[in-house]
Design brief:
Blueprint: H1 7-64, H2 71-75, H3 77-101, H4 114-121, H5 130-138, H6 141-157, H7 165-171, H8 191-196, H9 201-230, E1 241-248, E2 261-268, E3 276-281, E4 284-286, E5 304-315, E6 322-333, E7 337-342, E8 348-349, E9 354-361, E10 369-374, E11 379-383, E12 386-390, E13 401-407, E14 410-416, E15 418-419, E16 425-427, E17 434-436, H10 438-442, E18 448-450, E19 461-470, E20 477-482, H11 489-495, E21 502-511, E22 519-520, E23 524-528
Parallel strand pairs: 8-15, 17-23
Antiparallel strand pairs: 1-2, 3-4, 3-5, 5-6, 7-9, 9-12, 10-13, 11-12, 13-14, 16-18, 19-20, 19-21, 21-22, 21-23
Helix pairs in contact: 1-9, 3-5, 3-6, 3-9, 6-9
Length: about 525
Amino acid sequence: MSIPKEPRQLMINIMYLVLTALLALNVSAEIFNAFEMVDEGLTTANASLDEANSAKPELIKEAAKKKASLAEYADRLPGLRALSKEASGYIDGIVNELIDASGDQSGAVDEGDYVMVLDKRELKGKKSYDGTTRMMVDEGKGMELKAKIMEYKEKFLTFVDEDDRKRLAAELPLSIDEVAWTKSPNKKKDWADFTFGHMPLGATMPIFTKFKNDIKASEAAVLNHLAGKVGVGGATVVLDKFTVVSAPKKSYIIKGDKFSTDVFLSASAGKDSQTGLSISVNGKGLRADADGVAKYETTANALGVKKYNAAITITDPVSGEKKTYKKEFEYEVGERSVTVSPLKMNVFYIGVDNPVAVSAAGVNSTDVKVSMGGAGGGTINRKDGNYNVRVTKPTKKGEFAKINISAPGLTESRDFRVKRIPDPIAMLSKSRGGAMSAGEFKAQQGVRPVLDGFDFDAKCSITEFVVVRVPKRQDPEPARNSGGKFAGKTSSVIGKATAGDKYFFENVKCKCPGDAAARNIGQMVFNIK
């Protein structure tokens, strides 16, 4: 603006400038007061962290003495504490250099936080930003600080179990915001310029105190990790053994009933755990093995459903608190018995497979032994979950083939008669005899045996027969046939059939599975129409 010529107006403008400057100074003072309040709050938080971090190592050492395998966690404590002190000292060193660079030359402070610096040195240059910009931005101290913070974070993670490092790395507060400075509208060249460029000394003090807070909080996070590993604090109960458990509603059921069971993952305290574990059934204590598993046994003296109550108590090794979990179970007591069920007939037939189901109530199927004895020359083999019986000769009156069953505490047998396969029926087409047209009769290929009402998969075969043609007012014409199919002279005799003829099929013989010799199955008579 132009300088007024009138003295009065010049005086007014000068007064206005002075007032504006005074207002600016008042606002600046309020802002710096706010910075100091924030810094004091962070300093108080740091003191609380120091107190907590100093107490926890002794707890970890005491807990680690209980198991040799936990000693390694106590061994990490000296290095962790030294690292935290080194990192905090590094931050204090930068603060002292900044105070000197900003015009206060009263001497460096060896150690201590920002409050100590203020008390001893009073920050005469707290409104100056020349020193912070020159040292932290232009001379590269800010980028060095950034690198050191990331270096200290990696060093903190070396005290953490490898399997937990990725998770804890995300939780450690010691970090650098790599995103905010790139979005700054003032076009900052790097993180240091964004954080410290043209920042008054007093405004940077809370930033450094916050970094010290991050260091102490990171130390606390690692201490908590170590405490959890030895069973101190939140990780008081260590469940490190797991197994799949099936708890059936009933451990004995009848065929046709539904089997129901709860299947779940069970966790228990292993041999390296600090957890106190006690197990009891019906009020009687049981001894648990190294995997936290106890065995309950009782003798079944009466039949029926029996119930028992199981209780497991876990004692917190640090707080001494006990928690008890209870559940009722049941089982059924029955008598051992054997069932042998032929799946097709109540007798065994020679020459075919005779399927049989064998079960022993109250006995595991793998403990059941089955064998053949007695008459009939039989054998028995397991097949598709059941058994298959083969016999070679029929039993006489008073004789039986025997299936013998043996199992722990059980020996029984079941008797069966043995028979030949029943005589099949000789048939021509679908007929056993009677009237048949000449055309249908001459179209037949031979005689076939049919096992009517027999459930087994057995095939008999015709071995021979004699056919006799008796035409009207002519002499009979016989023919002997070998096998069931018409051949030779038999085919010629069958081909002469005319209305009024009679055909006799005599001495029809066949052999069935298991037969040593052919059997006679009777005759057929057909009237040709």
